[in-house]
Amino acid sequence: MPLQPKASGSIHGSPLRRAHRARQRDDGVVGQDPGTDRYADARRRMVEVDLAGRDIVDPRVLAAMQRVPRHLFVNDAQVGQAYEDRALPIGREQTISQPYIVAFTAQALAVAPGDRILEVGTGSGYAAAVLAEMGAAVVTVERDPDLASTARSRLDALGYSQVEVVRGDGSTGRPERAPFDAITVAAAAPSVPEPLVTQLRVGGRLVVPVGDRRSGQNLFRVVRTGEGNEVEDLLPVTFVPLVGRAGWPDPQTGPRRGALRRNHPR
């Protein structure tokens, strides 16, 4: 399928630039007030051309992408590029993912209202907001304390009360909160992290990029079944590395005991 394979983990922490008025719908999902959103047309073009114009067909994904104000999740200097279909650098060697990849992942997760979702790699909070717009309750884990704090403040300001931001090593998940209906990982692991698979309910879905930038990365979907796991290779991507006990070693501290180092998904 035609695609732009260059995507990245959504890790970002710039402050809110201005007050943004959100409206709470009767169903509890946060939406944008068209009367105060001057970026609505740009966002609509992004959805129609870059998402629906390709292979994003889930109407709930398209509606969520239409409502979330991506311009409030990027740096000041990049506001004018917020609705271009590309990843944007946001400092600290991190990026906010290309909108197509955020939508593709949400579609691959088959999110249903009321789903409990674990997100590994909060970054700016943009992808978590999209999942929340689809009616999910999201636990999102960020290893960087500054990014976690900023994302929490941003999501709270926009009214996403169903998103819980947690500081920690997301590569090993949150076993005390399991099982999850779906898990999404916004950074590339050396292999499918086994701790995340075990935290899915039977029938649960994990979407995770696997590989490194030199040898290439692919986005995989793992469905946990009663008799094992179903693994599907979805598309080539480029993400920042997943650092943690079940990911890559921290470049500042070196390898960690017990870190997984397999090169291929299970």
Automatic annotation (TrEMBL):
InterPro entries: PCMT, SAM-dependent_MTases_sf. GO terms for biological process: methylation. Coiled coil: none annotated. Its EC number is 2.1.1.77. It comes from marine metagenome. Belongs to the methyltransferase superfamily. L-isoaspartyl/D-aspartyl protein methyltransferase family. CDD domains: AdoMet_MTases (cd02440). The keyword Methyltransferase applies. This is protein-L-isoaspartate(D-aspartate) O-methyltransferase. HAMAP family: PIMT. It is an enzyme of class 2 (transferase). Keywords: Cytoplasm, Methyltransferase, S-adenosyl-L-methionine, Transferase. Residues 1-38, 245-266 are annotated as: Disordered.
